[in-house]
Write a structure and sequence with these properties.
The complex is a heterodimer of chains A (277) and B (698).
Chain A: H1 4-9, E1 28-37, E2 44-54, E3 59-63, H2 70-77, E4 85-90, E5 93-94, H3 100-110, E6 111-114, H4 126-136, H5 141-155, H6 170-182, E7 188-192, H7 200-215, E8 220-223, H8 227-230, E9 235-240, E10 243-249, H9 255-269
Parallel strand pairs in A: 3-8, 3-9, 6-7, 7-8
Antiparallel strand pairs in A: 1-2, 1-4, 4-5, 9-10
Helix pairs in contact in A: 4-5, 4-6, 5-6, 6-7
Chain B: H1 2-12, H2 14-35, H3 37-42, H4 48-86, H5 88-96, H6 101-141, H7 155-182, H8 185-189, H9 203-227, H10 235-263, H11 266-269, H12 274-323, E1 328-332, H13 346-349, H14 354-361, H15 365-368, E2 369-377, H16 392-398, H17 405-412, E3 421-423, H18 424-434, E4 445-450, H19 456-465, E5 468-471, E6 474-484, E7 498-503, E8 516-523, H20 527-542, E9 559-562, H21 563-606, H22 608-616, H23 621-662, H24 667-697
Parallel strand pairs in B: 3-7, 4-6
Antiparallel strand pairs in B: 1-8, 1-9, 2-8, 4-7, 5-6
Classes of the chains: A alpha/beta (277), B alpha+beta (698).
C-alpha cells in the first residue's frame, strides 16, 4: 500500500512540471523531448515526451530504474545524443538545432561533466586535468593557475593537485573531476551516477561538495539510482518508461525527511531491486 | 568449426589484419623481385663482361638475403604482435565459454595461415610484376636491349621466397601460440580496463641526461670530422661509440626535456591541448625510446647506404669520362716497378723508345693507330740517387693546408720517395694529341701535374708556399698556373698522377732510364671498329710477357688499358651498386616506417578513451586532429631528423673518400636520397595519421 502523499504529488504524465519557486528564465528547458531507437519494425521509445524546467541555481536529481530513460535524457541535454523530436533550451538557446561545429563550443562553454568513473586523463596530473578544461576554452594562460587553485580549494583537493590519477583515491578522483567540471563556470553541471564507484564515506564527501557548489549558485543535474545521493538535491524527478512519473520538491524539509519521501517513491516504483530485473 | 571462426574473424576485423597483411605482401614482393634478377638478366641481350657483373650481383644479393629475411621476419612478428595484443579480450571470451587454450591456439593458427597464404599469393603476383619492370630497367642501365615482349618468371626465386616466408610464418605461429598459452584468463578479461601504468622519470634527471646526450653527440661529430675514417687509432671507434650512447640517451630523455622546457613557459604549456600532447609523448616514450633509437639507426644506415651507393656509381661514371680520353694506354716500367733502378733491361737496349719497339713488333701498327705519344716519369739519376731533393712528405709537412681530415690523412700516408719529374716536351705532345693547351716553362719554370681534382688545392698551396725549388743544381720557379691536369693514362679510378713535377727538358739528363713509361694511343677509326683489332694485336705481340714475370722484362707493355673495356665494365658496376643501394635502402626504410606506423596505430587504438574525454570537455575536432598530428609527427620526425644529422656528418667524411677516389661530390646524391626518403617515409606518415584519425573519430 503506497503512502498517501505519493498519490497527491503524482501528476498526470506527460504534463509539464513546473518548479515550486520559478524565477524569471530557466537555465534548462526540456519541451516534449522524444527519443526513439531501432528500426521501423522494432521501435524503442527511450524518451516519450519529457518536459521540465530547471531554474538557475537549482540542484535536481533525475531518478528511475534501469531502462527508464534517465541516461538518455542526460545524453540529450549534454549533446552527446540528439533527441528525435522536441526541444531542449539552455539559456534560451535551442541546442537541438546546433551544428556539429557549434556543439563542441556549447559543451565547453556551458556544460561541466562528472562521470561515474572520473574519466580523468591518466597521463596528466590533477592540476593539468583541471587546467585542460580551461585551456580548451582558450582561457588566457595567466588566469589558468589561479582559477585551478581556487576551485581545488573549494573541493578540498589542493594537496593532490600534483599527483597523477593512479596516485589518488576514488573519492579524490571524483572531486578532481567535479573541480574540472565547474572550473569553467558552466551554466549547467551534469553528473552521471557520480557516487556509483565510491564507498559511502567518499560518497558523502562528494555529495557535500556538490551541495556546497550548489550553495555557491552552481546549477546541477544529477542522474542517479541512489536515493541517498538524490536526497542531497533540492528536487527529485522520477522517470519511468521514458515519461516523468513523479516529482518531489525538498522545500524546507530536512534531508532525512526528503530521503524518506524519495524512498517511498522508489519502493512504489519497484524498489532499487528493479534495476536488476 | 575453429576454421570457420578463424575465417569469420579475419573477415570481420579486416582493418586490423590489413597492416599484417600489407607487411607480409610487401616483404614477399620485394624478396621475389630481387631474388629473380639472374633469371631476368637471362632474357636480356648483354655482353659477357656484363653477365659476369650480374653473377656478382646475384652472389651479393643472395648473401644479403639472409640479412633481409631477418629484418622482414622481425617485421612480420612485430606486426603480428600488434594484432594479438589488440584481441586479448576476445581470447578471454573464448576461454570463459569453455574453450581450451589449445582450441584458441588452433583458431590463431588458422587465422595466420589464411592471411599468410593470401599475402604470399598477392605478394608473389606483385613481385612478378615488379621483376618485369626491373627487367626493363636493368636492360636500360646496361644499355642492352630486350627483343620484343618477354615474360620472365623465376621458379627458383619463387621457391626461395615461399620457403623463407614459410619459415617466417612458422616463427610467427610458434610465437603466437606461446604468447596466447601464457595468458591468464583474468588478464585477458580485464585487458580493456587495465590502463597502462604511467611510469615516471624525474624531470630534472631527463634534462640532465638530455644535455649529456647532446654533448656526447657533439663530441662524436667533432672527433669524426677532425680525424676522418681512415686515420689510424681508436678515433673512428670512439666516435661510433659516443654517437651510439648519445643517441640512446637522446631519445631516452628528449620527451622529459621538452616537457620541462615547455612547462617553463606557462603561455605555451597552458594553451590548447599542448600539455596533453606533451604528457602523451612523455608517457609513451618511456617504453618507446629503444625502438625509436633502433628506427633511427636503421634510417641512418638506409640514408648512408643509398647515398654512398648512388654517388659511388655516379662518381665512377664521371671519373670514367675523364679517364678514357685516350683510346688505349700501355704502361710499362723500364727500370723495374719497385724502383730497382736497373739499367740493363730490354728497354735500355731500345734506348727507352717504346713507340719504336711497338712499330717493330706490330707490323700493322700504323693502320691501327693514328697517333701515339710516349710520356716518361723519372725518379733516379744514373747513379741511382733521387733526381730531386724533395720528397712528397716534405711538401706535406712544409705546406700549411686547411683541408679535410681524409685528404690530410691521404697525403700523410704518401711516400718518402722523391718527387717524380716529367719532361715538358712530352707533356706538351700529350696536350697536342688531345687538342689542349700545353705549358711554356722557358728555361727555369715548373708546374705540378695532378689529375686527381680533389688534391688540386693542396698542390696549389704547396706551389704558393714554396715558389722556388732547387733541382739538379737549377733554380726553378712555379708558373702562375701552378697545376695542370691532363690525364696521365686511361684509368677507371679517379686519377693516375698526383704531384709529378713538369720541368724543362734539359733538367733531366739525356738517356736516363725512366721509372714509368706510358704510351697513349689514338685509334685510326672509332673505338667500336678498332678496339677488337687493336687489343688482339697487342695480345698477340706481348701476351707472353704482359702482367707476368719481372716487370723489367715486360717492355714495352706491362699493363694495357683500353677505354672501351673500362666503359663496358663500369656500366655493370653501376647496375650492381645502384641495385644494392636501392634494395637495402628500401627494405630498411619501409621497415622503419612500418614499425613506426604500427606503434602509432596501436597507440591511437589504446587512446580512443582519452580522445573521447577531450571531445566531452568540448575540444573541437580540429583541435584534437592537431594534437594527434603533433604526436604522430614527433614520432616520425625525430628519428628522421637525428638520422639525417648523423648521416650528414658521416657522409661528409665518406664524401672526402669518394671524392678522392672518383672526384665526385656526394652532395648531389644526398639531395636525391633525401627526396626519395621523404616521399616514401612521408607517405607512411600520412597514411598513419589518417588511419589514426579515423580510429580516434570512431
Amino acid at each position: 500500500m503506497a503512502p498517501s502523499h505519493l498519490q497527491q504529488s503524482r501528476p498526470a504524465a506527460p504534463a509539464r512540471v513546473a518548479s515550486a519557486a520559478q524565477p524569471s528564465r530557466p537555465v534548462l528547458s526540456c519541451q516534449d523531448v522524444e527519443k526513439l531507437y531501432g528500426t521501423r519494425a522494432n521501435v524503442t521509445r527511450a524518451l516519450d515526451g519529457v518536459s521540465f524546467d530547471v531554474a538557475p541555481g537549482e540542484y535536481i536529481a533525475i531518478m528511475g530504474p534501469s531502462g527508464s530513460g534517465k541516461t538518455t535524457m542526460l545524453n540529450c541535454i549534454s549533446t552527446i545524443d540528439r533527441p528525435t523530436s522536441g526541444h531542449i533550451l539552455v539559456d534560451g538557446e535551442d541546442i537541438t538545432k546546433l551544428r556539429p561545429g557549434q556543439l563542441s563550443r556549447f559543451r565547453r562553454e556551458r556544460l561541466g561533466f562528472v562521470f561515474q568513473d572520473s574519466n580523468l586523463l591518466d597521463t596528466l596530473t590533477a592540476r593539468e586535468n583541471i587546467a585542460l578544461a580551461l585551456t580548451i576554452n582558450h582561457v588566457p594562460s595567466r588566469e589558468v593557475t589561479p582559477r585551478v587553485e581556487e576551485v581545488a580549494e573549494r573541493l578540498g583537493v589542493t594537496d593532490v593537485l600534483d599527483k597523477f590519477p593512479h596516485q589518488m583515491s576514488g573519492g579524490q578522483k571524483q572531486r578532481v573531476a567535479a573541480a574540472r567540471a565547474i572550473v569553467t563556470g558552466p551554466s549547467l553541471v551534469l553528473a552521471d551516477e557520480p557516487t556509483g564507484a565510491l564507498d559511502s564515506k567518499n560518497s558523502r564527501r562528494l555529495l557535500e561538495s556538490l551541495e556546497d557548489l550548489n550553495n555557491d549558485d552552481a546549477t546541477i543535474i544529477m542522474v542517479t539510482h541512489d536515493s541517498f545521493a538524490a536526497s542531497y538535491a533540492r528536487r527529485a524527478l522520477f522517470l519511468k518508461d521514458g515519461r516523468i512519473f513523479s516529482e518531489i520538491v525538498r522545500g524546507t524539509k530536512t534531508r532525512k525527511q526528503f530521503f524518506d519521501e524519495i524512498m517511498d517513491v522508489v519502493s512504489f516504483l519497484g524498489g532499487e531491486g528493479a534495476d536488476v530485473r | 568449426m575453429y576454421a570457420k571462426i578463424a575465417l569469420g574473424n579475419v573477415r570481420k576485423s579486416f582493418r586490423d589484419f590489413s597492416v599484417f597483411f600489407l607487411t607480409l605482401a610487401f616483404g614477399v614482393c620485394v624478396f621475389y623481385a630481387f631474388g629473380s634478377i639472374t633469371d631476368q638478366a637471362a632474357v636480356i641481350d648483354m655482353a659477357s663482361d656484363q653477365r659476369r657483373m650480374v653473377q656478382t650481383l646475384t652472389d651479393i644479393l643472395s648473401g644479403l638475403s639472409v640479412f633481409v629475411v631477418i629484418i622482414l621476419g622481425f617485421l612480420v612478428v612485430y606486426a603480428n604482435r600488434f594484432l594479438i595484443r589488440r584481441r586479448k579480450r576476445e581470447f578471454g571470451i573464448y576461454l570463459t565459454l569453455g574453450m581450451d587454450i589449445r582450441h584458441v591456439s588452433t583458431i590463431i593458427v588458422f587465422e595466420t595461415l589464411a592471411v599468410g597464404a593470401v599475402a604470399l599469393a598477392v605478394g608473389l603476383l606483385l613481385g612478378v610484376g615488379l621483376s618485369q619492370v626491373m627487367m626493363y630497367v636493368t636492360a636500360g642501365l646496361f644499355e642492352a636491349t630486350i627483343k620484343g615482349f618477354v615474360f620472365a618468371f623465376s621458379p627458383s626465386a619463387c621457391v626461395n621466397t615461399v620457403a623463407c616466408f614459410a619459415g617466417i610464418f612458422l616463427v610467427t605461429l610458434v610465437f603466437n601460440v606461446t604468447t596466447v598459452s601464457r595468458y591468464k584468463l583474468i588478464d585477458l578479461i580485464n585487458a580493456d580496463k587495465v590502463s597502462e601504468k604511467v611510469r615516471l622519470r624525474s624531470l630534472p634527471l631527463s634534462v640532465a641526461l638530455f644535455v649529456v646526450s647532446v654533448a656526447l653527440i657533439g663530441v662524436a661529430y667533432r672527433v669524426l670530422l677532425e680525424h676522418g675514417m681512415m686515420e689510424e687509432g681508436p678515433y673512428f671507434a670512439i666516435a661510433t661509440g659516443l654517437v651510439t650512447v648519445g643517441t640512446l640517451l637522446f631519445f631516452f630523455s628528449i620527451s622529459g626535456f621538452l616537457l620541462r622546457a615547455l612547462q617553463a613557459s606557462p603561455r605555451a604549456y597552458l594553451s590548447g591541448l599542448n600539455m596533453f600532447v606533451m604528457r602523451q609523448l612523455n608517457s609513451r616514450i618511456n617504453t618507446a625510446w629503444l625502438s625509436i633509437s633502433l628506427v633511427c639507426a636503421m634510417l641512418f644506415l638506409a640514408i648512408c647506404g643509398v647515398c654512398t651507393g648512388f654517388s659511388v656509381a655516379t662518381g665512377m661514371n664521371e671519373a670514367l669520362v675523364a679517364g678514357t680520353r685516350y683510346d688505349m694506354s700501355l704502361v710499362s716500367y723500364p727500370t723495374g716497378m719497385l724502383g730497382e733502378r736497373n739499367a740493363q733491361g730490354p728497354a735500355a737496349a731500345d734506348g727507352y723508345d717504346a713507340i719504336a719497339r711497338l712499330r717493330a713488333d706490330i707490323p700493322e701498327f700504323d693502320e691501327l693507330f693514328r697517333e701515339a705519344v710516349q710520356v716518361n716519369t723519372y725518379d733516379y739519376d744514373a747513379s741511382g740517387e733521387p733526381l730531386s731533393g724533395y720528397t712528397v712528405e716534405w711538401f706535406v709537412e712544409s705546406t700549411d693546408f686547411d683541408g679535410s681530415a681524409t685528404v690530410k690523412q691521404m697525403m700523410l700516408g704518401s711516400s718518402e720517395t722523391a718527387v717524380t719529374l716529367v719532361r715538358a716536351s712530352e707533356y706538351n705532345a700529350l696536350c697536342a694529341m688531345l687538342g689542349e693547351k700545353g705549358v711554356d716553362l722557358g728555361s727555369d719554370g715548373c708546374v705540378w701535374w695532378n689529375d686527381m681534382s680533389s688534391l688540386d688545392d693542396f698542390w696549389r698551396a704547396a706551389a704558393e708556399q714554396n715558389p722556388e725549388l732547387e733541382i739538379q743544381g737549377r733554380t726553378l720557379r712555379f708558373s702562375d698556373e701552378a697545376v695542370v691536369s691532363v690525364p696521365f693514362s686511361d684509368t677507371g679510378a679517379g686519377g693516375t698522377v698526383s704531384g709529378a713535377l713538369i720541368v724543362p727538358d734539359d733538367v733531366i739528363p739525356e738517356g736516363l732510364g725512366p721509372s714509368t713509361t706510358v704510351v697513349n694511343l689514338m685509334y685510326n677509326g672509332s673505338r667500336e671498329e678498332m678496339n677488337e683489332a687493336a687489343t688482339s694485336a697487342i695480345d698477340e705481340a706481348y701476351g707472353d710477357i704482359m702482367g707476368q714475370g719481372e716487370t723489367i722484362e715486360a717492355w714495352p707493355v706491362w699493363n694495357p688499358i683500353n677505354a672501351q673495356g673500362l666503359l663496358d665494365q663500369s656500366s655493370g658496376t653501376t647496375v650492381v651498386v645502384t641495385y644494392l643501394a636501392i634494395y637495402i635502402g628500401v627494405v630498411l626504410l619501409v621497415c622503419c616506417a612500418t614499425v613506426l606506423a604500427l606503434q602509432q596505430l596501436s597507440e591511437a587504438a589504446d587512446n580512443v578513451g582519452r580522445y573521447r574525454v577531450l571531445a566531452e570537455l568540448g575540444a573541437e575536432r580540429s583541435m584534437i586532429d592537431r594534437a594527434l598530428l603533433a604526436q604522430v609527427g614527433v614520432y616520425f620526425l625525430f628519428p628522421l631528423v637525428v638520422a639525417v644529422a648523423h648521416a650528414a656528418v658521416a657522409l661528409s667524411v665518406v664524401n672526402d673518400i669518394v671524392a678522392l677516389l672518383t672526384g665526385y661530390q656526394i652532395g648531389t646524391a644526398l639531395v636525391g636520397t633525401v627526396c626519395f626518403v621523404v616521399v616514401l617515409y612521408g607517405g607512411y606518415f600520412l597514411v598513419t595519421y589518417l588511419t589514426s584519425r579515423s580510429l580516434v573519430r570512431a
